[in-house]
Write a structure and sequence with these properties.
about 150 residues; mainly alpha; 5 helices
Amino acid sequence: MSGGPASGPPARGPGTWPVLAVIAAGGSLGAVARYAASLAWPVSGPGFPWTVFAVNVTGCALIGVLMVLTVERARVTRPLVRPFLGVGVLGGFTTFSTYAADVSRLLVRQEVATALAYAAATAVAALAAVWGAAALTRALVDGRGRVS
């Protein structure tokens, strides 16, 4: 019998149902936070969709922090933190579907320059945010861990 991915001892950690429960709870919190942002900073009519842009860039920065703390530096080791915050809260908070719908809406309204700027700026800013937040988190975590 060959040793494939299903062979070996069972995985340690929480079972499926606790993980699904924390993802659902986190997702609802993230979605409520995104909706609250849209109420606090409504964008209607023509122009750049600043709220969704800010939400997605902020969410990417926070995922950079989370991944450094949970995966790279293992400062947070509780098994349900990453699914709750990463998949749940930040997955519910950020929104690729609204981003895509916004680009489409801008194109339909023939705001081609704004649509292209929004599409490109979101991708660049989101990647820069995750990279910058991760780099800053690494520097802060590693700086505190050094003995002088």
